[in-house]
Amino acid sequence: MEWYHAVMVLAAGLAAGFINTVAGGGSSITLPVLVLVGLPPNVANGTNRVAILLQSMVGVSTFRNNKVLDMGDGWRLSLPSALGALAGALVAIRVSDEAMRVVIIALMVGMLLLVIFNPEAWVKRQANDVVAKTGPWQYFLFFLIGFYGGFIQVGVGFLLLAGLVLGRGLDLVRANALKVMIVLVYTVIALIIFWHDNSVHLWMGLLMGAGSMLGAYAGAKFTIRGSAKYVRWFLIAMLVVMILKLTGVF
């Protein structure tokens, strides 16, 4: 691996840790970067979980220290998400590298459209008007989100945020805190599956994770203090570059 590959991995982790903690979509940067520096798509998918785990640990700690994380609610929603992630990761390790590459490119395009049309802004506008709901459907919803997160992770932050704000009636700060905790719990499960399948490049994951932890700390502080209006434009630019590179345009 060239020295600049290490710089790319570290920088991608830093950016993704911040973005994932503030909103979501950071894996749309880290996953293609891991592919670009030479990892097979399935190994990139597993290695990405090391960074996700480390940044989530920092995010949860920061949110908890600032007393905006409801641990009880977090555990209730983490359980179905973890079961979903177990199923999703088991499916992911059975997908061929070429099929996973196609999935990654398709998700990059999907994430680009998602960020451009910005449905998260609509979710935020609804935050003050949503009444909390309870029922078995919520646990099924978080099982499905966990399945997606265990399978590929890209964009799961938005799905969790939407589920927590629209389905749970939480304000944005507390929803972000719970989102990070749920991701932490199910990532442990998913990482065990990928590790057992030899689909984790530990050194690369730890390097990306080091950047992710710094980004997550800054992102958690930023979330508590305000909003991230420039994150969306940064993410759009990065997605365009990654899509062009992965599809061989340049």
Number of domains: 1
Q: What is the ordering of alpha helices and beta strands?
A: HHHHHHHHHHH
How many strands in all? 0
Question: Structural class per helix/strand content?
Answer: mainly alpha
Strand content: under 5%
Distance between the termini: 20 Å
Q: From the structure provided, what is the oligomeric state, counting identical versus distinct chains?
A: single chain
User: What about the largest sheet?
Assistant: none
So how many helices?
11
Over all CA atoms, what is the radius of gyration?
Answer: 17 Å
Helix content: over 70%
Mean pLDDT: 83
Low-confidence stretches: none
Large-scale geometry: globular
Structural features, described:
The structure is a single chain. Helix content is 80%, strand content 0%. Helix 1 packs antiparallel against helix 2, helix 3 runs antiparallel to helix 9 and helix 5 (97-117) runs antiparallel to helix 11 (231-246). The chain has one domain (3-246). It has 250 residues and is mostly helical. The model has no long low-confidence stretch (mean pLDDT 83). The chain starts with a helix and ends with a helix. It contains 11 helices and no strands.
SSE blueprint and pairings:
Blueprint: H1 3-22, H2 27-36, H3 41-65, H4 71-92, H5 97-117, H6 119-126, H7 136-151, H8 156-167, H9 172-196, H10 202-225, H11 231-246
Question: Which tags fit this structure?
Answer:
250 residues, mainly alpha, 11 helices
